[in-house]
Write the structure tokens for this entry.
Amino acid sequence: MMAMQPTEARNLFPLTRDYIFFNHAGISPMSDRTRAALHSLIEDMTLRPTPIDLVEEPADRLRRSLARLLHVPAETVAITRNTAHGLSLLAQGLDWQQGDNLIIGKGDYRENVHPWRALAERGVELREAPAVDGRITPEAVFDLVDERTRLISLSHVQHANGFRVDLTAIGRECDRRGIVFAVDAVQSVGALQLDLSQLPVDFLAAGACKWLMGPIGAGFCYCRPELLKRLGTPLAGVRSTTHPKDFFSALFDVSDEARRIEESSVSPLDIVAFGVAIDLLLEVGPAVVEKCVLGLSRRLAEGLDREGLEVVGPWPREDRESSGIVSFRRPGSTPTEIVRELRCAGVVGRIYPDSVRLSPHFYNTQAEIDRVVQILTPVRISAP
């Protein structure tokens, strides 16, 4: 099958007719394909008897599609509600001991904070690696490690400034020291290529509604088989067992696949919408998506910098530490004023307390980037 071109995929997003949408790091629009799939499913559920395999088959297809995106076996992928749900399953499934500690990045989004803060009641200390010039470096992380460090959990991409951490360097050192390495990938997966067959990552979680362009309230997690064997079952149901379709058995023989942490049925509407969104990304191709995202974000950052606006975080930055997120400030303007100006011009971004965040996806265009830079360029009055 021929790969779909980004320009062709753009036609599947009606929102582009009225807006320049640069908030994919927030909540992405859904495609016409997703709308059609949901409409068809609702028609089936409304007009026909609901079959018992309404969820099972789409869920199996979704796991296989996610596995293709991540280059892992489908048995290592579980469907969740969001990033925090996945990370909480890991946090509550490990056998913590009083006095253990774990490390996160200072400034990480709350989805990668609260699941770990909740462990304080079990006597687990939370440590935060500081950012150095906007970067969470391996050195800053491992400076906090001692003999009681059990886990390191980091955002692959920082939500506020778009910096991408070095998963390979940190993961290899975690492997060497026997530390579990978990990743919040909600700001990278769907925009950047993630080959988990090559990356030394033990656990990865993400929600669907950002760069994956899926529904709110759906997500997934990946669990390395070696780690899965060590995890308890904080939530349990029919999907936790080896016989999920045997509704009359009382046996609790836990599955050795990642789906055992799904516990029970998930929304078929979410499953179908999520599956269609992933399949679109696969049809375009992860390599093409990443090339477009990094090219557009680089053009945006360079344009803002050229026109005298301040790019937040490490700047200039290399592709290996870049993402689809560009945050900035404009001297003399508040974030509220900037966002109001953008909205009046039909541009959708995200306001932060001291900056504005823009996040274009693969189907956005260079012309849109240049238009936004033009809108944001301060008016210069020539001397008489």
Observations:
- The two ends are 62 Å apart (CA to CA).
- The longest strand covers residues 149-155.
